[in-house]
Amino acid sequence: MPIHRFERRALLATPWKNGGGVTREIVCQPPGAGMDDFDWRVSIAEISRDGSFSRFEGVDRVITLLEGAGVRLLSDDGALDHRLSAPLAPFAFAGETPLTSTLLDGGCHDCNVMTRRARCRADVLVCTGGRALAPAAAGLLMSVHRTWQAGEHVLGPGEGLWWTDHRVAWPLTCADFDAALLAVAIYPVTP
Q: Which of left, alpha, beta for 135 (phi over 0: left; psi -120 to 50: alpha)?
């Protein structure tokens, strides 16, 4: 099974789809897919000003605050009004929802998981201690705090790995009381 490792600090910054911020893409599948035809995508966004979120028709999103005070997410119709202010608390919403974000107290960084609703779905978990993840054919692990053992792989803070096309259950261990690891499991949607 090919494992793709990454370091958060080495990810390249690119403009958002709507030009209102920057993102650092970790993985986009299938290979060569663009913003309009990916099956699943994980990135880290830097939000430095108030503005609109990019809209993605037919895409489910999960956003997790990594650093900073966070943002208030408000839909144009007022049906969605969420303060993304608790670090490492995943929040799911439909990608086609027109949203405006307002910074709560300065810039922030968040992890964005996007899945094409008709093709796959994502479970996003924050692990704070040892556990075994259920098998998934694709996904991503990223250490947020402390050093983790993921099977035979060691992941320091800001380091991670992703995989595709092979079902694997990851045993995860970390002895530190303030450890945190972001785990994304991708599952195909069956018709």
A: beta
Residue 143, amino acid? S
Is 152 in contact with 165 (CB distance < 8 Å)?
no
Strand partners of residue 159: 7
pLDDT in tens, 135-175: 999 999 999 999 999 999 999 999 999 999 999 999 999 98
Q: What is the DSSP string of the chain?
A: --EEEEEGGGPPEEE-TTSSSEEEEEEEESTT--TTT-SEEEEEEEE-S-EEPPP-TTEEEEEEEEESS-EEEEETTSS-EEEE-STT--EEEETTS-EEEEESSS-EEEEEEEEETTTEEEEEEEE-S-EEPPPBSEEEEEEEES-EEETTEEE-TTEEEEE-SS-B--EEE---TT-EEEEEEEEEPP-
Looking at the DSSP assignment, which residues form a beta bridge with residue 136? 168
Asked whether the whole model's pTM tops 0.85, one would answer yes
Q: What angle do CA 66, 69, 71 make, to 5 degrees?
A: 90
